[in-house]
Amino acid sequence: MTAQAGTGRTNQKQRTRTAIVAAARDLTGTGAEVTMPAIARAALVSEATAYRYFPDLPSLISEALAGVWPPPAEALAPVADSADAVERVAFACEFLLRGILARQGSVRAMIAATITRPETVATRPGIRFGLIDHALLPLEGTLGATDPDAFTQLKRDLAVVVSAESLFTLTDLCGLDPDEAVTSAVRTATTLTEAAVRAIG
User: Fold this and answer.
1) How far apart are CA 193 and CA 117, in angstroms?
2) What is the pLDDT of residues 40-84, one digit of tens each?
Protein backbone atom coordinates (compact mmCIF):
# COMPACT_ATOMS: atom_id res chain seq x y z
CA MET A 1 0.00 0.00 0.00
CA THR A 2 1.39 3.42 -0.90
CA ALA A 3 1.81 6.17 1.66
CA GLN A 4 -0.79 8.21 -0.18
CA ALA A 5 -3.31 5.37 -0.01
CA GLY A 6 -2.59 4.93 3.70
CA THR A 7 -3.11 8.62 4.30
CA GLY A 8 -6.35 8.53 2.31
CA ARG A 9 -7.65 5.65 4.38
CA THR A 10 -6.71 7.43 7.60
CA ASN A 11 -8.46 10.57 6.44
CA GLN A 12 -11.56 8.59 5.51
CA LYS A 13 -11.64 6.96 8.94
CA GLN A 14 -11.37 10.37 10.57
CA ARG A 15 -14.19 11.72 8.41
CA THR A 16 -16.37 8.75 9.32
CA ARG A 17 -15.67 9.17 13.02
CA THR A 18 -16.36 12.90 12.81
CA ALA A 19 -19.64 12.25 10.99
CA ILE A 20 -20.76 9.79 13.66
CA VAL A 21 -19.93 12.20 16.50
CA ALA A 22 -21.62 15.10 14.67
CA ALA A 23 -24.75 13.02 14.09
CA ALA A 24 -24.83 12.06 17.77
CA ARG A 25 -24.39 15.69 18.82
CA ASP A 26 -27.18 16.84 16.50
CA LEU A 27 -29.51 14.11 17.74
CA THR A 28 -28.85 14.91 21.40
CA GLY A 29 -29.97 18.48 20.78
CA THR A 30 -33.39 17.42 19.52
CA GLY A 31 -34.59 15.85 22.76
CA ALA A 32 -35.52 12.73 20.78
CA GLU A 33 -34.52 9.21 21.81
CA VAL A 34 -30.84 8.62 21.18
CA THR A 35 -29.87 5.16 19.98
CA MET A 36 -26.95 3.75 18.05
CA PRO A 37 -29.16 2.82 15.05
CA ALA A 38 -30.58 6.36 14.91
CA ILE A 39 -27.12 7.90 15.08
CA ALA A 40 -25.81 5.56 12.40
CA ARG A 41 -28.70 6.46 10.08
CA ALA A 42 -28.09 10.18 10.60
CA ALA A 43 -24.37 9.71 9.91
CA LEU A 44 -25.15 7.66 6.76
CA VAL A 45 -23.20 4.66 8.02
CA SER A 46 -24.22 1.19 9.10
CA GLU A 47 -24.78 0.40 12.77
CA ALA A 48 -21.88 -2.05 12.57
CA THR A 49 -19.63 0.76 11.35
CA ALA A 50 -20.69 2.97 14.25
CA TYR A 51 -19.81 0.20 16.70
CA ARG A 52 -16.39 -0.19 15.10
CA TYR A 53 -15.60 3.37 16.10
CA PHE A 54 -17.37 3.36 19.47
CA PRO A 55 -17.77 0.18 21.54
CA ASP A 56 -20.97 1.36 23.20
CA LEU A 57 -23.49 4.17 23.26
CA PRO A 58 -22.17 5.85 26.45
CA SER A 59 -18.69 6.34 24.97
CA LEU A 60 -20.18 7.90 21.84
CA ILE A 61 -22.55 10.18 23.76
CA SER A 62 -19.72 11.21 26.07
CA GLU A 63 -17.59 12.30 23.12
CA ALA A 64 -20.54 14.00 21.44
CA LEU A 65 -21.29 16.03 24.57
CA ALA A 66 -17.66 16.99 25.21
CA GLY A 67 -17.49 20.76 25.19
CA VAL A 68 -21.27 21.16 24.94
CA TRP A 69 -21.62 21.98 28.63
CA PRO A 70 -19.72 25.09 29.73
CA PRO A 71 -17.30 24.86 32.68
CA PRO A 72 -18.88 25.60 36.08
CA ALA A 73 -17.46 29.12 36.41
CA GLU A 74 -18.87 30.07 33.02
CA ALA A 75 -22.22 28.43 33.74
CA LEU A 76 -22.58 30.31 37.02
CA ALA A 77 -21.27 33.63 35.67
CA PRO A 78 -24.65 35.39 36.25
CA VAL A 79 -24.28 34.75 40.01
CA ALA A 80 -20.50 35.09 40.15
CA ASP A 81 -20.68 38.15 42.40
CA SER A 82 -23.15 36.59 44.81
CA ALA A 83 -21.91 35.33 48.17
CA ASP A 84 -25.33 33.79 48.85
CA ALA A 85 -24.88 30.03 48.59
CA VAL A 86 -28.66 29.51 48.46
CA GLU A 87 -29.02 31.78 45.44
CA ARG A 88 -26.03 30.15 43.75
CA VAL A 89 -27.34 26.62 44.35
CA ALA A 90 -30.78 27.58 43.00
CA PHE A 91 -29.19 28.94 39.84
CA ALA A 92 -26.93 25.91 39.42
CA CYS A 93 -29.83 23.51 39.89
CA GLU A 94 -32.03 25.25 37.33
CA PHE A 95 -29.13 25.57 34.88
CA LEU A 96 -28.39 21.85 35.02
CA LEU A 97 -32.00 20.68 34.83
CA ARG A 98 -32.85 22.99 31.91
CA GLY A 99 -29.79 21.67 30.10
CA ILE A 100 -30.88 18.09 30.78
CA LEU A 101 -34.35 18.82 29.41
CA ALA A 102 -32.77 20.16 26.22
CA ARG A 103 -30.69 16.98 25.85
CA GLN A 104 -32.91 14.48 27.59
CA GLY A 105 -32.76 11.85 24.84
CA SER A 106 -29.02 11.46 25.26
CA VAL A 107 -29.19 11.77 29.06
CA ARG A 108 -31.82 9.03 29.29
CA ALA A 109 -29.76 6.83 26.98
CA MET A 110 -26.68 7.39 29.11
CA ILE A 111 -28.51 6.58 32.34
CA ALA A 112 -30.08 3.45 30.86
CA ALA A 113 -26.75 2.22 29.54
CA THR A 114 -24.89 2.80 32.78
CA ILE A 115 -27.60 1.10 34.85
CA THR A 116 -27.35 -2.07 32.81
CA ARG A 117 -23.56 -1.79 32.55
CA PRO A 118 -22.27 -0.12 35.74
CA GLU A 119 -18.68 -0.41 34.55
CA THR A 120 -19.43 2.30 31.97
CA VAL A 121 -20.55 4.84 34.59
CA ALA A 122 -17.21 6.65 34.32
CA THR A 123 -18.26 7.79 30.84
CA ARG A 124 -21.08 9.91 32.31
CA PRO A 125 -20.09 13.58 32.26
CA GLY A 126 -20.79 14.27 35.96
CA ILE A 127 -21.65 17.91 35.27
CA ARG A 128 -23.59 18.24 38.53
CA PHE A 129 -20.54 17.83 40.78
CA GLY A 130 -18.61 20.76 39.33
CA LEU A 131 -21.69 22.97 39.45
CA ILE A 132 -22.40 22.06 43.08
CA ASP A 133 -18.80 22.64 44.13
CA HIS A 134 -18.73 26.03 42.42
CA ALA A 135 -22.12 27.05 43.79
CA LEU A 136 -20.98 26.27 47.34
CA LEU A 137 -17.73 28.23 47.17
CA PRO A 138 -19.04 30.86 49.66
CA LEU A 139 -19.38 28.12 52.29
CA GLU A 140 -15.85 26.77 51.98
CA GLY A 141 -14.47 29.17 54.56
CA THR A 142 -17.39 28.76 56.96
CA LEU A 143 -19.16 25.39 56.98
CA GLY A 144 -16.31 23.79 55.04
CA ALA A 145 -13.83 24.91 57.68
CA THR A 146 -15.88 24.40 60.85
CA ASP A 147 -17.69 21.17 59.93
CA PRO A 148 -16.16 19.53 56.85
CA ASP A 149 -18.25 16.39 57.33
CA ALA A 150 -21.47 18.42 57.19
CA PHE A 151 -20.16 20.26 54.14
CA THR A 152 -19.43 16.97 52.40
CA GLN A 153 -22.87 15.67 53.32
CA LEU A 154 -24.51 18.79 51.89
CA LYS A 155 -22.73 18.14 48.60
CA ARG A 156 -23.96 14.54 48.62
CA ASP A 157 -27.52 15.64 49.40
CA LEU A 158 -27.43 18.14 46.56
CA ALA A 159 -26.02 15.54 44.17
CA VAL A 160 -29.22 13.55 44.68
CA VAL A 161 -31.47 16.53 43.94
CA VAL A 162 -29.45 18.38 41.30
CA SER A 163 -29.58 15.48 38.91
CA ALA A 164 -31.23 13.93 35.87
CA GLU A 165 -32.51 11.09 38.03
CA SER A 166 -34.35 13.53 40.27
CA LEU A 167 -35.77 15.40 37.30
CA PHE A 168 -37.04 12.24 35.61
CA THR A 169 -38.56 10.98 38.86
CA LEU A 170 -40.57 14.18 39.09
CA THR A 171 -41.69 14.12 35.45
CA ASP A 172 -42.10 10.40 34.82
CA LEU A 173 -43.29 9.10 38.18
CA CYS A 174 -44.81 12.14 39.88
CA GLY A 175 -46.45 13.43 36.71
CA LEU A 176 -45.11 16.99 36.88
CA ASP A 177 -44.61 18.96 33.72
CA PRO A 178 -40.99 20.01 33.06
CA ASP A 179 -41.32 23.50 34.53
CA GLU A 180 -43.02 22.19 37.67
CA ALA A 181 -40.34 19.53 38.02
CA VAL A 182 -37.52 22.08 37.78
CA THR A 183 -39.26 24.33 40.31
CA SER A 184 -39.73 21.42 42.72
CA ALA A 185 -36.10 20.32 42.48
CA VAL A 186 -34.83 23.89 42.92
CA ARG A 187 -37.03 24.28 46.01
CA THR A 188 -35.58 21.10 47.53
CA ALA A 189 -32.00 22.11 46.70
CA THR A 190 -32.45 25.54 48.27
CA THR A 191 -34.13 24.04 51.36
CA LEU A 192 -31.14 21.77 51.90
CA THR A 193 -28.71 24.66 51.45
CA GLU A 194 -30.69 27.00 53.70
CA ALA A 195 -30.64 24.38 56.47
CA ALA A 196 -26.87 24.06 56.16
CA VAL A 197 -26.42 27.85 56.25
CA ARG A 198 -28.60 28.12 59.37
CA ALA A 199 -26.49 25.47 61.06
CA ILE A 200 -23.42 27.70 60.70
CA GLY A 201 -25.01 30.30 62.90
Assistant:
1) 33
2) 999 999 999 999 999 888 888 888 887 788 999 999 999 999 999
